[in-house]
Amino acid sequence: MSMIQLRDQLRAASVPDGAPWVKKEFVEQFLVRAWDLIAIDHRDPDAWELQHFLAAVGAVVAQRYDLAATYAEKGMAPPEDRAEEWRGRASGMSRPELERAIQLVRVQPAPAG
Fold this sequence. Notes:
Blueprint: H1 3-13, H2 20-40, H3 47-61, H4 65-75, H5 95-107
């Protein structure tokens, strides 16, 4: 699977209605899968990916799951769909550092209800 295919899956699925933990789990699943794709490529996230995936993590922590899905989707954009000044820019953050940020999502408790 490619990042573009993952983005298309996220677009087609959208954040489900229901309990907050269901929404959190949905977004978490896509963030983890995006990180897996970066790891499979044996590379660090670029600046575009990093900016959007970290924003998605922050949105999950703030319990804004629709916003988190939007940021995650934007982070999966192919280089040709990104703002020109972001193309090919290094992030300065390593793959393990991004993994630690995504782990915040995994340990963040979802509110009951």
